[in-house]
Write a structure and sequence with these properties.
binds 5'-O-[(L-methionyl)-sulphamoyl]adenosine, alpha/beta, about 50% helix, six-stranded parallel β-sheet, single chain, about 15% strand
Length: about 500
């Protein structure tokens, strides 16, 4: 049977040499969803990449004394390296400087122009001549250029405009007919009340004051507005309007765009209108997640309140960082980041609950049965409770992941692990080990622990891939598939476990 497809995207990042842990959030959550969907048997296409055009990048390149292309090439390598160190399993990394993307955007722009949705007009704005930048009234600081503090003047330039206004009613109707298009619900209300109801103005979609952008093919000197360029990545990456559009035909429309809350507006107003104008289907869902914040405020370079995420990975391990980010930010809202909170989560959940459990259990198999796990299948009431909890995990994780409550899905897995620890305390294997006549009972207890750990680990693969691999290796099992969690007893009786490995070391606070 052909697998069901799942097309998932996270935003393409502005290339930066200064990524922080907040930047990693969207992409880690995307990765966990992609891995989870693959686990469930979907044919997943997970896209991410870099958003490389625009005046800001051009300026930075000038400051660095290199061409914009040289500038972005160098920092894109930095983004790729970061995703590698976080084990991000994307299927494609798109760059907006890729030839295929550039051609696709040019065709989209031309098509919209030819059909009258893009037209030429005049852009009137507040311009800072030394900085060559347009600003809006609200961006000014004390009425002056926010970059250099100098006077700005009202300037008009020729520009192309996109008829957002024409599609306003259709967009509202689409929201009404597809109540799950924008989530969480609160973000939808914000879009309608703050942006759509006051009336959509046509959007200026070309610039002439700088040239680091995609040229408009039919009017020299104009480059395409960076958001029209960037949003198109979701279809250009699949070969839309190219000779080879097989991926487009297979994967479009996207099942899920995950974006940070501040860019929901672009994804739920400009993007759907672009797609309506192109007469192609709209994405099924745009999910706007909350932010990781520090002390209630932004993580910011100027405040110097963060380290490169790779430093945390080197100190605490990649899965500690992934776990923190996935667990700490509740569904749709903000979550606080601090190194101390990261240490607490690592010690409390990963070292104590998960690491200890696996270590103790493997240790007992080695100590009492020379590493062999046997299943005498003689369960008592207390065993049934654990077994039922293990068997109900699939349904819980599925339910939470269906509504993207990643943090709660992890919580459900850790609830089972907690119950395993409680089961050890209640069945007291060390007491059973003292009495020869309790050997079978001890075997049963250990089997139930091993099998519960295996079931929890099947799901952990989506969130903590390295840890899950290490646990499966220690358990010496290759029964790691999603369906194997519907039945208790899949772990093969008679298996010899491998040597124990420490999954997470307890971190002493004065270490850092
Ligand atoms: N280039 C645009 C996206 C274009 S998509 C067609 C962009 N790039 S970005 O680099 O500024 O942001 C990338 C992602 O990182 C966004 O989803 C943004 O919300 C996310 N985050 C940046 N800081 C964040 C936190 N502190 N916390 C969580 N996510 C945040 O926007």
């Amino acid at each position: 049977m052909e697998k069901k497809k799942f097309y998932l995207t996270t935003p393409i990042y502005y290339p930066s040499a200064n990524f922080h842990i907040g930047h990693c959030y969207t992409t880690i959550i995307g990765d966990a969803i992609a891995r989870y969907k693959r686990l469930c048997g979907y044919d997943v296409f997970y896209l991410t990449g870099t958003d490389e055009h625009g005046q800001k990048i051009q300026k930075k390149a000038v400051e660095a004394g290199v061409s914009p292309q040289e500038y972005v090439d160098k920092i894109v390598a930095n983004a790729k390296d970061l995703w590698k160190s976080l084990r991000i399993s994307y299927d494609k990394f798109i760059r907006t400087t890729d030839k295929e993307h550039v051609e696709c955007v040019q065709k989209i722009f031309k098509k919209l122009y030819d059909q009258g949705d893009i037209y030429k007009g005049e852009y009137k704005g507040l311009y800072c001549t030394p900085c060559e930048s347009f600003w809006t009234e609200t961006q000014l600081v004390d009425g002056k250029c926010p970059d250099c503090g100098r006077e700005v003047s009202v300037v008009t330039e020729e520009a192309y405009f996109f008829k957002l206004s024409k599609y306003q009613d259709r967009l509202i109707k689409y929201y009404e007919e597809n109540p799950k298009f924008i989530e969480p619900e609160s973000r939808k209300n914000e879009m309608i009340n703050n942006f759509i109801k006051p009336g959509l103005e046509d959007l200026c979609v070309s610039r002439t004051s700088f040239d680091w952008g995609i040229p408009v093919t039919f009017d020299e000197g104009h480059v395409v507005y960076v958001w029209i360029d960037a949003l198109s990545n979701y279809i250009s990456a699949l070969g839309f309007l190219s000779e080879n559009d097989e991926l487009y035909r297979k994967y479009w429309p996207a099942d899920l765009h995950i974006v940070g809350k501040e860019i929901v507006r672009f994804h739920t107003i400009i993007w759907p209108i672009m797609l309506m104008a192109l007469d192609i289907p709209l994405p099924k869902k745009v999910f706007g997640h909350g932010w990781l914040i520090i002390d209630g405020g932004k993580i910011s370079k100027s405040l110097g309140n963060y380290k490169d995420p790779r430093e945390y990975i080197d100190t605490y391990g990649v899965d500690a960082v992934r776990y923190f980010v996935l667990r700490e930010v509740p569904f749709g809202s903000d979550g606080n980041f601090s190194e101390e909170a990261l240490i607490n989560r690592t010690n409390g959940d990963l070292a104590n609950i998960l690491g200890n459990l696996v270590n103790r259990t493997i240790g007992m198999v080695n100590k009492y049965f020379d590493g062999i796990v046997d299943n005498p299948k003689a369960n008592e009431e207390i065993d049934e409770e654990l077994i039922n909890e293990a068997l109900s995990l699939k349904e819980k994780v599925d339910q939470y992941m269906d509504v993207l409550e990643v943090s709660k899905a992890l919580e459900a897995i850790f609830d089972l692990l907690r119950s395993c620890n409680k089961y050890i305390d209640e069945t007291t294997p060390w007491v059973l080990a003292k009495d020869e006549s309790s050997k079978d009972r001890l075997k049963t207890v250990i089997y139930n622990l091993i099998e519960s750990i295996r079931i929890a680990t099947v799901f952990l693969q989506a969130y903590l891939p390295e840890t899950a691999n290490s646990i499966f290796k220690q358990l010496n099992t290759d029964i790691t598939d999603y369906n194997s969690t519907s039945e208790f007893g899949k772990y093969k009786s008679g298996t010899k476990v491998n040597a124990p490995e420490v999954l997470f070391k307890r971190i002493e606070k004065d270490n850092n």
